[in-house]
Amino acid sequence: MDEWEEQETATSGTCALTSHTSNAGMFHFRFSDRGEFQRGECRKTMEPLQEASCAEDSANDGDSQNNTAERSSFSRRGGRGGGVCVWGGYILLVISVEFKLPVHRSAACQLYLPLCAAFLFLTAGPRVTYVPPPPSEDEESIFSHYESGVNFDKYDEILVDVSGTNPPPAIMTFDEAALCESLKRNVSKSGYVKPTPVQKHGIPIVSAGRDLMACAQTGSGKTAAFLLPILQQLMADGAAASCFSETQEPEAIIVAPTRELINQIYLEARKFAYGTCVRPVVVYGGVSTGHQIRDLSRGCNVLCGTPGRLLDMIGRGKVGLTKVRYLVLDEADRMLDMGFEPDMRRLVGSPGMPSKENRQTLMFSATFPEDIQRLAADFLKTDYLFLAVGIVGGACSDVEQTFVQVTKFAKRDQLLDLLKSTGSARTMVFVETKRQADFIAVILCQEKFPTTSIHGDREQWQREQALGDFRSGKCPVLVATSVGARGLDIPDVQLVVNFDLPNNIDEYVHRIGRTGRCGNTGRAVSFYDPEANSELAQSLVTILSKAQQEVPSWLEAAAFSGHGPSGFNPPRKHFASTDLRKGPQGGLFQDSSVTSQLAAQTAADDEEWE
Ligand SMILES: Nc1ncnc2c1ncn2[C@@H]1O[C@H](COP(=O)(O)OP(=O)(O)OP(=O)(O)O)[C@@H](O)[C@H]1O
């Protein structure tokens, strides 16, 4: 089961319990012959990681939680003793009901209290008290950045297509973006000399007030493409200076699927808005709600949030929506897939939220499957523009992709060999499950590779510490589940290892995009287990050939044997747009930059990917 699924199912108590025990240790229970219940020792199944063990970890990630999930998450800090007692009662109830065991009357009475408490515990949830350290106020660290790489200028060669009616002309320089002085200064302090293609086209589109669905390769600067024009407009219109109020009415709302990603976007917004009257705020799960409410009440123009916590704040009346002018969905295809779509519909349907005709909606991602494009149209004005930089859903061409055919039992040794050969290169290792993430991290630590892990079963402070240790190089290896696949912009990641390949090609594209960012080169090594990954073979061949990379003959053979229609697409130098509205014949409207033949070709390619 992948992490997203786990997060979503983990909202029920029983699931959370299973996940907790599997992660933290094994509880042993036995009954006396009078039906009384005794709790045995709690035995750890594995050595703790470098940081604190996961004994208090939550089964809920909180990234994809809705309000209920946020409040009903199982183990949070505080009330551990009560939690154990309640768990005891709860477990006994489940076991005795399940196996029709006779429970002694006095024992049963003793249990009612904890059971009632358990009910409250499960419905209300213990309080989350974690308060993250405040971000640095030091100008140098606010503007710290890594250098763009040797291939940065090659971005200009990527073919770009804007489809839809009357797109505004692209800008070639930041000067043409007509940013106000303070924004210009902040852009320059961030080390930005010239805009990337998604910025050249995206900034004028947003500034022209158009709705936008933008697809550009990982690490190519999508965040600034929406932040800069929004901040510019807010400043030009004289966004009300932030002031204290119990209910804040932000002008822009930005949502993203994970806590770490939304925090990163917030820090970018804070950087670009530095020294201006625009105040960004971030809200996400796993952190004290009271702390975030206090922060919010100090003023908020741009609110960044994960869906669960955002809806929670709206539900509590801490955020009003009547002034919303911009709604941004980063990783939009993820925000509109089955996991988050209901939350997004709840958000746009919340009282006060302007209708799509009366707000500007912007969607960004490196991948945009057709079914999601279709769905996205519900949130966008009918004349939205579709911006495609390069091949929609394509892998970043600056990442060298290698595949190793390996059985699941040989993966561990293969990983150790690989890490030994790469020295201290900063490496992200992706695995399928949270449990596997801890397991691999422990093994690597034992083998003297300083390693940490990030996944949805870790407390938020542990996740943030893990990311911090990875960023700083204290732990040059980070083992991650899908929670680390999208959006994270970490300097100098040289290698991504797919210890377990994902079961979805888009996830593969996002994972390998953690390296090879901003014109830098990177490397991805994927362990292909023929038993488990044959379903992915065809999509991998397509992705590799589109990125003009060598396709191993065994992978090509696997792609052609058995699964789906045969044939993959030969490497093409050309861009082809896949704006769904064009249809196979070239579409509902005219655009000048691509031939309908190419469009048709890619539409067919995309069908193969799914
Ligand atoms: N014009 C620019 N000049 C120099 N650096 C830039 C420019 N635009 C963006 N960057 C830097 O490039 C890096 C990647 O940008 P960003 O995180 O916005 O990529 P992205 O397209 O959103 O990636 P992903 O698809 O993985 O979310 C960041 O460190 C960002 O500061």
TrEMBL record:
Residue ranges of every copy of the Helicase ATP-binding domain listed in the record: 203-386
* Alphabetic keyword roster: ATP-binding, Helicase, Hydrolase, Meiosis, Nucleotide-binding
Q: Which PROSITE patterns match?
A: DEAD_ATP_HELICASE, HELICASE_ATP_BIND_1, HELICASE_CTER, Q_MOTIF
- Catalyzed chemical reaction(s): ATP + H2O = ADP + phosphate + H(+)
Where in the sequence does UniProt note compositional bias of the Polar residues kind?
61-70, 590-600
Which species? Astatotilapia calliptera (Eastern happy)
A single Gene Ontology molecular function, please?
hydrolase activity
Supply the name of the protein.
Answer: RNA helicase
Q: Which Gene Ontology biological process is one annotated for this entry?
A: meiotic cell cycle
Could you say which protein family the record assigns here? Belongs to the DEAD box helicase family. DDX4/VASA subfamily.
Which residue ranges does the record assign to the DEAD-box RNA helicase Q domain?
172-200
Source organism phylogeny: Eukaryota, Metazoa, Chordata, Craniata, Vertebrata
What is the residue range of the motif Q motif?
172-200
